[in-house]
Amino acid sequence: MKVLVTGAAGFIGSHVVICLLESGYDVFAIDNFSNSVEDDFLQKDKSGLGGAESLKRVSELTGKDIPFAKCDLKNEQEVEKLFKTQKFDAIIHLAALKAVAKSVETPLEYYSNNLIGSLNLLNMCKNYGVKKFIFSSSATVYGLPKELPIREDSPTGQGLTNTYGQTKFMVEKILMDLAKAEKDWDIVILRYFNPVGAHPSGRIGEDPLGLPNNLMPFVAQVCIGRLPVLKIYGDKFDTPDGTGIRDYIHIMDLARGHVSALDHIKKNKQIGCEIYNLGTGKGYSVLEMVAALEKASGRKIPIEISAQRPVDVARMYCDPSLAYEKLGWRCEYGLSEMCRDLWNWQINNPYGYTKPLAEQV
Ligand code: WQD
Fold first, then answer.
1. Which chain regions cross the lipid bilayer (predicted)?
2. What are the φ and ψ backbone dihedral angles of 189, each rounded to 5 degrees?
3. Is the ipTM of this complex over 0.95?
4. Atom 22 of ligand 1, residue of closest alpha carbon
């Protein structure tokens, strides 16, 4: 089965690709490098992976080739060319801009990239009869949760405070409407909680361009001394230690969830549109996460309490039981493995995929 993975060079994408390849799926990878490293040095690289250093390493780790194309989903001609030259059996659509604060400052860029990109892809899928579709959504669509743990039938779309969350919510609606109108689609929406960690090899991991937006990549860069201090956004939340609680999930568990969803689609015909939370069901606070990485690294992480973000949720964690019941998927890793693997990646790749200036020839 040949799977087109969009956003394949990114943090989630590279881990999903490695799990697909190790499960016997064939992968065609595309990325536009809006949030991953395109290294000119690699353009001349024989692997044909162009600038996708992350995928080059996935290819090394699996010993498998990864056909790859640079493609911007906003460009209809580029997308059409893909479907004209390749035969796909399924799509795993991960490509999206995901910086929450930036999405509020540049809504048009986010609607254009996340919505128009998804619509171009879906139209091409329809035209070329590719109707098995897995979509990367986010716990952000739950807005300010009224009930905990969050279940797939918990309210969505209310109190969405950022354009990023709106775009995820809107693409979910498009997929639900599509499955209602056309019965031959097999669609799975995966709502990610907070992915953390790295492949146990330490060869691939999270490498945000610029300052990390999310907690754990920021903490990891403070831990190796690349950033001076972690600013904790508020310690007056209604939580045991006053800091925000989230459902952190090991990136390998999250990636395996995509393989389980694909296996499910392969086994069951015309499922319509199904939705699953991908989380552990356990919440940890910011201070607990800092302590866990200090334990894994043996280092002290400097922190300072700063202002709470304008709209920040005190607690978010899910009920992951539906994914176990229907997909046979559940998390295998806990907090210590998340921090063990995050530390292993960060200490071995202090500057992510980019070489420090000193090492660049
Ligand atoms: C987690 C906790 C912060 C940074 C994100 C976005 C989006 C989504 C994942 C994909 C909160 C605290 C953070 C820092 C801090 N991705 N924090 N100092 O809030 O769940 O939002 O979820 O869909 O990226 O929606 O994750 O990592 O931003 O914050 O104190 O420098 O860490 O207050 O309590 P969140 P986060």
1. none
2. -100, 125
3. yes
4. 194
